[in-house]
Each structure stands twice: as structure tokens, then as C-alpha cells.
Amino acid sequence: MPGQPIFILKEGSKREQGKNAMQNNINAAKAIADAVKTTLGPRGMDKMMVDSLGDIVITNDGVTILKEMDIDHPAAKMMVEVSKTQDQEVGDGTTTAAVLAGELLRKAEDLLNQNVHPTVIASGYRMAAEKAKEVLSSISTPIGNDAVLLTKIANTALNSKGASTSKAKLADISVKAVSQIKQERGQKVIVDMDDIQLVKKHGGSIEDTVLIQGIIVDKERVHPGMPTFVNNAKIALLNFALEIKKPEFDTSIRIEDPQAIGKFKKQEEGILKGMVDKIKASGANVVLTQKGIDDLAMHFLAKEGIYAARRVKKSDIEKLSKAVGGNMITNIDDLSPQDLGYSDRVEEVKIGEDHLTFVTGCKNPKAVSVLIRGGTEHVVDEIERSLVDSLHVVAAALEDGKIVPGGGAAATEIALKLKEYSATVGGREQLAIEKYAEAMEIVPRTLAENAGLDAIGILISLKRQHSEGHKTFGVNVFTGKAEDMVDLGVIEPIRVGKQAINSATDAAVMILRIDDVIATKASAGGGPKPPGKSPGSEED
């Protein structure tokens, strides 16, 4: 029939098109950026996240906040991905990346209102991002293996965290830990963060946090008759059970002579005694196994004065192998003195209500542990997040070998150079590049705003300094002036800035290119949710 509507989507499905869909997506992304903006910088504030079960997280770490938020809007979820990517690639700069993405979309809004096509904006943003990375490289300086500079990098990452009061201690731990586990392959430096074990135990104070040249095993000795500590430990790392192996198929044993039962038990005892004798013969005085240990085997080990722990996590055994220099053994007959690892001391330590095994004093370990202490569980969690960030930036600096000034200095220089560059670009892309330059100024502006300073005055002062050739000047949030960030020791790896530019640009371009949102009908339970709207998205 003429004029008869054709239904393509399921009943109850919602669809938004054109400017309305675009505006909703931009609003959602801006709301996410605004939610984390106040956490940026040394004077940033913390957020308290309470989930549906009542569990509390207190943090100012951008990616943690966004992960904990129960976000429903599809465009807002893309902003969360920006922070997650930044966290995986660099470990720091998660808030900066989200704030920058939000600001890029805010500036794009102005151009959309002037009827500039989204693809033109996207093209201009891509060009600006490439130029921004060039500028970043031009103001970077090589770092080498300078421990003082590495400590400053760790300090910069810790400055904006809740652990900033103990930043000297944590920065020192970060540099020593990363320097210990780094591997040099030709001209390249490789740092595997899995080789650093973080163990959290609340109690004590942040100052009690300590780097251990070895590994902490979250297990206690298996028998009270075993020694509580062993000096000059020779450690056997096992991946088999010190138990009688059960047959792989169903079996039954018929014993008709009562004396045979005794012989049968004696034989089992002999097998276990043989295992312990082989361990003793290898020279081992500490046994750490991934599998179980039979009660009788425990007794024999205790009689021989051997310290043993069972059901050690596979990841811990792998770290132990790197720390003590031993090989993991899967068959008792293969155990030899050459397979044993060595450490100065293995001891059982009680922290709070937990008994842990400390393997300490390893010679040149390629895996280390950090015992994190703090007054409460929430404090310990935040210290861990802070320490992870500082460890990652030190690793990134060693791997890339280049650093840039922090405190908004790099962002200001990029903004200045992009405005000069935009004049050389013809067409409407020039407008997008200018807006990208304006968006970069959000970093020093937010740092100043969060410190309660005159943001406009500081921005003007920064621009003047940069136009005079002072490329390393940024915001000193403590004095409220534009100062040289390199002199102040506020520096960060080049990877932080590059990844923030990449992630923020990709997210902004992707959201800008969406002009149609189709939300299919929800299956069971609950009606369809209108596209582009989530609880609080427009109100925020």
C-alpha cells in the first residue's frame, strides 16, 4: 500500500539520528571528562566510589574511578577505554587522556555549530595529533640510566597521588625495583612488570613499606616441627606432589592377609621416605612446591630439618625461579644440586593474622617484592595504585630513553606550535587544528583550577614564556607561577604524552563520526533503554 510504513527494527527498538545522536554522545563524553577533571595534578581531589554491595574505593586515579563507575552510555564507555588503554600502555596519565578527549569533543562542538562537517574535523584532528607528537619529540631529552632523573620521574607520578607525603620513599623503591629487574637486549631495555610482586598488608604506616631482594610467598611452613627460619637457604622449587600418586584409572586392591596391610603401608611410607631422602641428598634445606605434601612426608621433612611450604601459586614459583636462580623441577628423579636456588635467608613471618614465607637476600635477583603497609585497607589499596603508576613510568622512561617536562609545559608548547602550524594548512582543516591547539590548553588550565589559582592569568604567563623560547615552563601549583619544570624536577616519560594524544584523538574522532545510534530491544527483563541516554548523562 502506498505510504505504508516499513518496520525494520524489532518493536521497542530506539533510534537516534543526525545532530541529536551526535550531541548526546558528545554530552556523555564531556560528562565523563568533567567527572575526573578535579582529580588532575598535585592539588587534585579524591573520589569515593561506592558499589552496589557497599564496597568503598577512595582514589584520585583516573582509570580506577572510571572502572568503578557503573557506566551505561555507549559513548561514555569509549572514554573509559581511553583511560584503560593509557593505563595498560604507560600506567600514568589516565586522567589527562580522559580530560583531553572530553575537551577535544567540546571544541568540536563549536565547529559543528558552524556547520563544519564531522569528517573535516576528524581529518584536522588527525593532522594535529601527528604534529603534536612531532613537537613532543622535539622538546624531549635523552635520559640514559640516570638514577637521579628516574627518581624525579617517579616523584612526578606520585605527586598527584594520596601517597605524596611518602613520595621520597616510594620513588626510591620504584627506581631500585625497576633497575633490579630490567633486562638489556642489545641496545634495547626491556622491563617486565610481572617480575615485581606487590604484597599488601594493612597495619603499620606507609613508611614501613619495603623493597625485598627476593619474594614473599603467601604460605606458611607445613609442619610445626620445621625450623622457623633457614640461613644460607638452598631452595628446591617443585612442580609435583610429595604424595603417593593415585592411579589414573579405577583400581581395587584385595588384601586377604592382615600382615599384608602393614607391608602395604610400609611400602607407601618407604616411597615418601625415598622422596625426602632424594631432596636431602640434593643438598636442599628449603622445599617450595606448587602441589601438595602428604602428612607423612611433612613428618620426614621436619625430621631432616627442611623448611617446606605447599600449594605455592604458579606465578610465585616463576618469580622465585628468577629471584633465587633455581630451576622448577617436575620429577623428583631430576632434582640435582645444580637446580637449587640460593638466598641468604628463608623465614616464616607473622604480619597481622597472616603467616608468610619471606625469601630474602637473593644475589642479583631478576624478580623482587614490595611489601606495602598502611594504616587501613583503603590506604594500602591507594598506595598500591600509586606505586604501580610510579613503577610503570620509571620502566617507560628506561625503555624509551626520553623525557619531557610535566606541569602542562609540553601541552602549552604543543598548543603554541599547533597554532603556528594551522596557518600553513589550507581549507577547513585549519579550523580543526586551531581547536585542537585550544583543547591542549586544558591540561595547564585544569592544573591551575584544581589548585585554586587564576587559570587565565597563568595561561597568559605560560604562553608568553613559551613564545620567548622557554619550552620547559609549566604551572607550579604550589607558588601559582609559571616556572621551569626541569629545574623543579617535574618530568615524565615521552610515552605518557604520546599515548594520551593517541588515545584521546582516536576516541574523539570515533565519537564525532557517529551520526546514528540504534539501540535494539532489551531481551528478557527490563524494557529498552533509549539511545544516548543513561542515568544522569544529560543531567551531568
Characterise this structure.
It is a single chain. This protein is of the alpha+beta class. 46% of the residues lie in helices and 18% in strands. Strand 14 and strand 15 form a beta hairpin. Helix 3 (74-89) packs across helix 4 and helix 5 (118-138) crosses helix 13 (429-440). It has three domains: 14-142 and 404-519, GROEL, domain 1, CATH 1.10.560.10; 144-212 and 367-400, TCP-1-like chaperonin intermediate domain (GROEL, domain 2, 2-Layer Sandwich), CATH 3.30.260; 215-364, 3-Layer(bba) Sandwich (GroEL). The chain has helices at residues 18-37, 62-68, 74-89, 94-113, 118-138, 147-159, 167-181, 258-281, 295-303, 314-324, 377-400, 409-422, 429-440, 442-450, 455-467, 485-488, 494-512, and strands spanning 14-17, 47-50, 56-59, 141-142, 183-185, 188-190, 196-202, 210-212, 215-217, 229-238, 286-289, 307-309, 328-329, 341-351, 354-360, 368-374, 402-405, 473-476, 481-484, 491-493, 516-519.
Task: Please give a handful of descriptors for the protein shown.
disordered C terminus, three-stranded antiparallel beta sheet, GroEL, GROEL, domain 1, seven-stranded mixed beta sheet, 540 residues, 17 helices, 3 domains, single chain
Structural class call reads alpha+beta
**Assigned CATH architecture of the largest domain:** Orthogonal Bundle
Could you name the ranges where pLDDT drops below 50 across 5 or more consecutive residues?
A: 523-529, 531-540
Spatial shape: elongated
CATH class of the largest domain: Mainly Alpha
Mean of residue pLDDT? 84
Quick one: how many beta strands? 21
Instruction: Supply the number of helical segments.
Output: 17
Largest sheet features: 7 strands, mixed
- Helix-residue proportion: 40-55%
Estimate what percentage of residues fall within beta strands.
15-25%
User: What's the name of the CATH homologous superfamily of the largest domain?
Assistant: GroEL-like equatorial domain
Question: Termini distance?
Answer: 46 Å
Q: Can you tell me the CATH topology of the largest domain?
A: GROEL, domain 1
Number of domains: 3
Rg, rounded, reads 30 Å
